[in-house]
Amino acid sequence: MRDFYLMVDCNNFYASCERVFDPSLEGRPVVVLSNNDGCVIARSNEAKALGITMGEPAYKREDFYARSGVRVLSSNYALYGDMSARVMRTLGQFCAEAEIYSIDECFLMLRGLNSASLLDTAREIRATVKKWTGIPVGVGIARTKTLAKVANRLAKKGDGTRLLEDEDDIDRVLHSTEPGDVWGIGRRSARFLAACGVRTALDLKRRPDDWVRRQLTVTGLRTVLELRQIPCIALEDAPPPARSLVCSRSFGTRVESLASLEEAVSAYVQRAAEKLRRKGLVAGAVQVFLETNRFQPGPQYCASRGRALPAPTADTLVLHGPALQILREIHKPGYKYQKAGVILLDLAPAGQRQLSFLEPSGEEKTRRDALMRVMDRVNTMHGQGTLTLAASGLGKKEWHMRQERRSPRYTTSWAELPVVR
Q: When you count CB atoms within 10 A of the terminal residue's CB, does the N or C end of the chain come out lower?
């Protein structure tokens, strides 16, 4: 009995989240679109069977979607993020050693179980996640993370679980797997390997170590060793600290007026500062950028500028002033802007920041910290943007993303809770 990695991956995650609250979508082709209802970023199995590809522009296929009965939805990131958190909490019931790899993927480590027990546990995980959250998952099991990813691909095509342990079985699977489908092998490396006659993952596994290290560096060698069931990539139970935080959106329509741009940047600063406080971090600098749509004809312009803060902070009001000042400095009239964003830089844990005589202290700091906590609590309880600065606008906002087909935020907004009739 040895240690094994489990790769748990939610099936067609965005589409599955929508189906949890709208059973009429079951069995129907479903696609989810990117910001401003642009390109396809998620597809149900039924949509894949119709030949709908990832990244295809939705406006070019509207007639096809209508003829084929495809349900087209705007992205609903508030719903997807909350459902992801529920899935990850459920997985935490099975294992203390876990690495959340992405919004819909998680590695688990199970120790000292035999093959039968591993498969039983995988089936229990699938049943529990489905029962508690409504999300279907596939579970791939192997001695290394790289092989667990390969096993997960097979699990989705089969009954939802797959164990790769026997060497002959692994070789058969790798013989039918392209190098580009191996976790850690990018497109450029895949093209290079094809030119070198490496046609399958099994060919890659059998290449000499010296050749792999020379051609694919140490990182590629780790991947090859993992294909040989030699663990080289450990769980990251604590992700590395973030160095920056970005809040940015493409506008629903091109924006020309400085006042509208100020509203957008104000909203982005507030959202970024809220994320900063949630992570327990402070920022030492703020950067703002603006850009036009380079895919549209006409004059183009993009600009970016940063500014160091007097003292590291996560206070929305302190970050807000410099951000708007930078925007006014880089804005040029006469252009129709497609995107703006705020980047918070030089991040550090709030308890380890370098103190300054310029930051508020004593009673003033206590009041400001309390104000930020109240804002966060209200917006968490009643929905993002419930309590906001007037600078981000009070009426209809021309810079808002297009989300004409967004489903309700069933789990994060009191006003959009599902109604049982």
A: C
Parallel, antiparallel or unpaired: strands 161-164 and 137-142: parallel
pTM higher than the cut 0.70 = yes
Condensed to tens digits (0 to 9), the pLDDT of residues 315-361 reads 999 999 999 999 999 999 999 999 999 999 999 888 765 655 556 66
Residue with tokens 């930051």: 359
Residue the block writes with tokens 């749509």: 293
- Rounded distance between C-alpha atoms, residue 225 and residue 146, angstroms: 9
Which amino acid, one-letter code, is at 63? D
Q: What is the number of alpha carbons within 13 Å of residue 77 lying toward its C-beta?
A: 11
Torsion on CA atoms 234, 137, 78, 236, rounded to nearest 10: 0
